[in-house]
Amino acid sequence: ITCHAQTSSDRMCRAKFGTFAPASFDLYACAMCYTYLTNSEDVAVLPYSSYLYVRTDQTVYPKETLLTPDAENATFADMVCRTLDHDGCISWKSCCKAAHTCCQSHIQSPPGRNDSCPRTWDGFGCWEDTRPGKIVYIGCPAFLKYSVSSSKYTIV
Predict the structure, then answer these.
(1) SS3 80
(2) Where is the G-protein coupled receptors family 2 profile domain (predicted)?
(3) Which of 1, 15, 75, 73 is nearest to 45 (CA)?
(4) Which residue stretches of 50-110 are H helix?
(5) Where does residue 118 rank: exposed (0-12), middle (13-18), buried (19+ CB within 10 A)?
């Protein structure tokens, strides 16, 4: 992760590939959760947007259908979940909720230090501000298939 200064007016949520206003972050994070959890050939994130794009006729939707990955909106969530099995839907919603919680935590925290690697949602975990060179461990998220929450992964 590349470190950069964060200012007190910076009430944005940072993800692995960009910084977003909270509402945009939620959609982006849910789209990425779908991508990371499913590795689907049939449904993908539309480039440069936060929508899911149906690429084939192998789903319940026609090719080129756009899906809004909003896990908080029952209608949109149901539409996305129709492309997943029951466990996949639960995992996707759990990932979206974890991303939203991470974003809310980060925007409510005091601004980070200028010499810190900034707080970030990486698609699986919520990282806090960290001094460069420090090794940090967080638990593996429960929404990952075969995850053991006592297992750890690292960022340097």
Answers:
(1) helix
(2) 102-156
(3) 15
(4) 74-81, 86-108
(5) buried
Q: What is the dihedral of CA 150, 139, 81, 31, to 10 degrees?
A: -160
**Helices 86-108 and 74-81: crossing angle, nearest 10°?**
130
Tokens 């200012």 belong to residue: 7
- CA–CA dist 60, 66 (Å, integer): 12
Contact 51, 68 (CB under 8 A): yes
Which two structure tokens, joined as six digits, stand for 69? 């990955």
For residue 121, report the phi and psi dihedrals to the nearest 5 degrees.
-95, 120
User: Edge to edge, what strands does the sheet with 52-54 contain?
Assistant: 43-45, 52-54, 66-67
Region of residue 85 (left: phi > 0; alpha: psi -120 to 50; beta: else): beta
Please state, as a whole number, how many other Cβ atoms lie within 10 Å of the Cβ of residue 126. 17
Tokens of 5: 């200064």
Model pTM above 0.90: no
Q: Which candidate, 80, 61, 64, 84, places its Cα nearest to that of 72?
A: 80
The tokens describing 128, both together, are 């806090």
